[in-house]
Structures are given as C-alpha cells and as structure tokens.
Amino acid sequence: MLKFLKGVVAGSGAGLKDLPYNIGEPYSSAWGSWTHSRGTSKDDGSPVSIFSLSGSNAQDGHLAAGRNGVKRLRTVRHPNILSFLHSTEAETLDGSSTKVTIYIVTEPVMPLSEKIKELGLEGTQRDEYYAWGLHQIAKAVSFLNNDCKLVHGNVCLASVVVTQTLDWKLHAFDVLSEFDGQSEAATGPLLQYEWLVGSQYKPMELLKSDWAAIRKSPPWAIDSWGLGCLIYELFSGMRLGKTEELRNTASIPKSLLPDYQRLLSSMPSRRLNTSKLIENSEYFQNKLVDTIHFMDILNLKDSVEKDTFFRKLPNLAEQLPRQIVLKKLLPMLASALEFGSAAAPALTALLKMASWLSAEDFSAKVLPTIVKLFASNDRAIRVGLLQHIDQYGESLSAQIVDEQVYTHVATGFSDTSAFLRELTLKSMLILAPKLSQRTISGSLLKYLSKLQVDEEPAIRTNTTILLGNIASYLNEGTRKRVLINAFTVRALRDTFSPARGAGVMALCATSSYYDITEIATRILPNVVVLTIDPDSDVRSKAFQAVDQFLQIVKQYHEKTNAGDTTGSSMGISSIPGNASLLGWAMSSLTLKSKPSEQAPLAPANSSAPLASASSNDSSVMDTATPTLIHVSSATDFSDQAVPASPTSTDGWGELENGIHEEHESDKDGWDDIEPLEEPKPPSALANIQAAQKRPVSQPKPQVPSRPKIPPKVSKDEDDDLWGSIAAPAPKTASKPLNVKTAGAVDDDDPWAAIAAPPPTTRAKPLSAGRGRGAKPAAPKLGAQRINRTSSSGM
Question: Which of 77, 282, 508, 768 has its CA 20 to 30 A from that of 735?
Fold first, then answer.
C-alpha cells in the first residue's frame, strides 16, 4: 500500500527506462540542486524540459523536498505556473551505494537569466518586456497567496523560466506550503525545508525563524519580499549576494520604485499585496502589456473595439520588441483569426508580422492558418486574403492551391460584389500557375468566359489581360480553342476601349501560339478593323499588331519561297510586345484596383460616335468574312485552312453558357457581345451594287464547294435564307438590302447577291421546274444556282 502511494506521489513511471522522453543537454543554471535539461518526446520528437534531482538515499532532505515540489506542481494549475507533463523516480547503483533520481517533465522552457542574455533587449523595449514578465509572475504569486492560501517561499530569478512564446512562468515548488494563521502546523514544508532558501532571499522574520510572527503576517508577506528580490536581480543584472544590496535602487525604474520599496517593507503587515501591485502600478501601463492583455480578453471585446485595435496593430507592432511580436503576438493573432474571435482587419496585421519571419517559419506558423481562412464565410476576410495574396501566394504549394484553396477562391467569380469578383480575377495571376490542367480547363476557363461578358468594363478588361498572362500554362488544345475566340470575338468588339486595347495586346503577346492560317484568316482581319477605332490608343496598338503579324506572314512567305515549309507556326520571342506582357498586365491590374475607378471612362467610350464606329466595325467584319469563305471554296489552300480553325466546335463557346444557338453560324462562335445594329443602307447598298457590277460566271466544278458553308448554319436554315434571296429578282437596287436585313443575324453575307447575274427580266415567284426542262423541281440552293447561271433565257 505504501509503495502504491509512493508511486502516486512520485510519478507515473517506475524508472528511467519507462520515461518516454529523451534527455538532452543541460542548461548552465537551475533552481537549487535541480538540473534543468533539454529533452524530446520519444513518440513525436516534440521538445520538452526535464528537471532532475539526485540524492544518495531515499531519506535525503533534498529528495523529500523534491517530492513535495513534484506533488505541488502536479496539482497547481495556472497560466503563469509551469505546466507539468510527467514525473518518475529512478534508482541506480553507484558502486556500493544506491542513487535515487527524481525526474520532472514539463513544457519546454529556458532559465530566465539565459533568455535575457539571448534576447539582448535594451532601453524602452527591455523595460516593456520586463514589465510584461513581472506582470505575469505577480499574477502567479497573487494566485498562490490570495486564491490558494499557499506560500511559495523562494520567489527569485532562479525560480522563473521562459517558454517558447516568451511567457514567464513560476516553478521551484519544493518549499511550497499551505498558510493558515490559526494552525501551527500550516507552515510544515516551509518549516522543514526553509534551509533550502538562500539567506539573502529571506525576510527578517524568516531569517530569525520567528514562526509566530510569520503566522500573524498576511499570506503574501514572504512572497512579496521575494518578488522585490526578483525585481532587484532583474534590473541590476546580477544575482543577489546579500540582503543589504536591496537598498541599492539606482537601477530600479522610477515608476516602479515606490512599489519596490513597499514590497520590501521591514514590517510584514505593510508589505504590498501582489494583487495591488498589478492593479495600481504605473509601471505596468505600457504598449506591450496593454496589447497582450487586449489579446488575452479578445472574446470579451465588442466589434468596434476590435476594429479599432486591429487597425492600429500593424503600426504598433513595429514599435514593440520584434522577438515578442513574432513569438507571442503572432501565434495569438493567428489563433484568434482561425477561431473567429478576430475581425477582418487583423489579417493585415498578421501578414505584416509574418513578413518578418523566415520562409521556413512562415510556412510552418502562418500558412496553415491562411489556408483555413480561405474557407471563411466572412466576406471581409476573403477580401483581405485576396488583396494581400501577393505576400504569401508564392509560398503556397501547387497541391494546396489545387485541392484546398482554389475551390474556396472560385466562389468569388460569381459573387454579387463587383469588387470581390475583380479581386478574385486578379488573384488568378498568382494561383493559376499552380493549378492542374484539369482544374484550368474544367473550372477556371468557365468562370473567365463568363467574366468576359461581365457588366463591369474593368472586369472584362482584366479578364483579357489574365488570359494573355496564363496562356503559357494552358495546354496546346485549350489554347487553340480559347485564345483567338476570346481575344478577337469578344475583346476586340468590346464597347469599352481599354478592353479592345487589351485584346490587341494579348494577341500580340500570345502570337507564338497561332499558326499562319489563323493569323491570316482570323487575326489580321479582326485587328485591321481597329486601325480606324475612335480611341487613339486602340488605333496605335492596332497598327503595332498589324505590323507584327504581317511580319510573321512575310517570314512565312519567305520560308515558303525558299522551300522551307516545315512549320506554319512562327515564334516571335524577339518582338518586344511579347516580352513586355507581364509588366503590362501588372500595371493594368494595379491601376484598376476597383471597378468604380473605371466609371469616368465608360461614358466617353459608350457615346454615339462609339456606337456608329461599332456599327462600321460590324459592317466591315461582315464584308470581310464571306470574302474569305469564297476564296476558301475556290482554292486548294483553304481545304487545309478550314479544319485548322473549326468554328462550331471551338470549345471555348461550349465552356460559356452565354452563347446562344442562333450565333452558331458566326465564324468564331463568339458573336454574343457584338453590337447587333443594322448596317447603314448606303454602305451595304454600295457593297451589293459593286458586287453586282462585277462579271460573275461560276463554273459548275465550283458548285460542290458551296456546301462547305453548312457547318455554320443548319441545313434548313440555309435553304430558307438562300431561297428568299434567289427567287425574286429585285425590282430596284434596294430590294437585296431589305432581304438581307430581314435574314438571320448569324449570316450577314452581302456577297450572296453575286450568286445570280444581274436580272434581264422581271423575276416571278419561284415555281417548280421553271427553266429546267425535264428536270424535277428542286428547292435546293445549288440546283437553283446551276440553272440560273447556265440558262441564257433568264
């Protein structure tokens, strides 16, 4: 039974072999006869501190006091008292005698005297740190004296240790005793082990062993004296040699001197209670103590107090001791954000403090918190994360971004706040390179396709910029179906002039990804239109782009003439426009920080002149496109060009739900934001009249090539469209125009008029078999054209 009780008091282990910790190097100092060593856990390698005390036999007085310290440390719990983890007592044979050793395992700490030397603080920062540490020890002593009615008996520099977060904690409980003025046995351990306390730390009543006076004194009398000794050792920078040295107050701060003198009063009853020291001392009222105290009781503060505090914290942190900020404030701030007690402005302070960490410490201490914050439903937190993503984005691994971060960030693409949508878009400049191809193709491009038709012009512009920047991270197939469609059909036709300019620059910067056929048939026709853009900046960029792409075509022409046809894709890494895209994108993203900043530009680019220019653009584009199709049907070169740039299966249109089926007949499949204004009658009339004046004689071998048009419109739609044009011969020159404008918007083909020669007689309604001899009536477009072309009677 006694052996069992001894095991309970001494610890949970039966010997050193059962100690689940490894003992490392000892520190140079420790309290009393104890040895303070570093240590690690055998399970996970986490750091600990191991205190050991040896004696020649089990009845050694040091061991008896040590067992009392183990028992007290195990049972007394307080934030400012050393945390107990494990203890054991081991017996070893030392020659002919038995050696008994007590082991106490605690949280990892360092002796205060060594930590002070390591920090090397001076001036105001040193005083602030000392004030905070003394504040913690005073709270621990007050807890023992006033709440637990216990007397520590030996408060001094050696009985204080410092944690990894630079907190001060009280230990050395070997002499700890209950205090009861009515019981003579109340000071038993103190009476038994008071010889362990150095005479220089003893107040006069304890030095004289006047136990009657001690019992009549308040419970804090002995420990208040000890706290005064600690203050002296702390500010003098040396161990207390004798009691008389306490009279030397030259090193004591003036704001602390009155309290210091009251702590060391010669009359026990007049000594200052440590609880009063905490409440009243002017010395503890400084920025560091106030900041940490606010963080400790953060949950009790209202939202206004939190906002005010966290907005001041970034500047305040620069004035506080750097080591304390990084090791104490930063973990507290991260924890408060992670568990929701901190407001969104705290994120700015967190990232500023984190910028002072090394890359390894940043990844270990801050990144896990940031990743968890991305899942927050607080919009202000999400805005803060996106605004500062450049500070930590590079530290995020590709796996974390793809699996944990992106899914939460992507919700901002469809947020009702335009500001959050734009911040989400800008963040992709850093996150997109870390995404997998599956995520880019299956998710990101869908969101970007929708943002290209966003109601905010700045967002549309930045989407084009982003696509130009992340083009290198797309695979070849994705680039072919996305880039040209995104830049030509949408960006170049945007009503917002900076968006058109961004489209031109994006085309130039990604020119190495287009083959020669795409450049000649899809890019140049669209860019040339912008050389007459109302905006001078767009015109300048358009001329540069035309020169750049014509240079590529000329290089291809020269290679072809030289017999080198090995590749139709031209790289232009030497062209300045391609090399400067990143800088352009960054400046554009910086200038357009908020969509509201673009408001002044919108009216100037959405006025009546722009509308007419857009109409002219549409007219020119509609005129140019059928011309290319006609050449395609007449030459063998086009047989290779048509499959090179598919129109109805470009993929980018499929990724975006905003493209309607009636636009499938458009060459690029991206005509959803093109102004749908009818072309001006004089311009269209001039085009049709010019076409009709040309001699048209289409030989029969060309007829089979016309069916290459149906991939752009359905078969029935094609028959109806051409039937309405071919049947009635126009009475006046304005008739074809009326027919054209009545047709579908998808096929504005003014060149369709040249399918029939200038009429020589009044055309009558189309009837079955007219002018076709014995051939049966065929409503097909091709059949009608053959007869009308070859018949001389029409």
Answer: 768
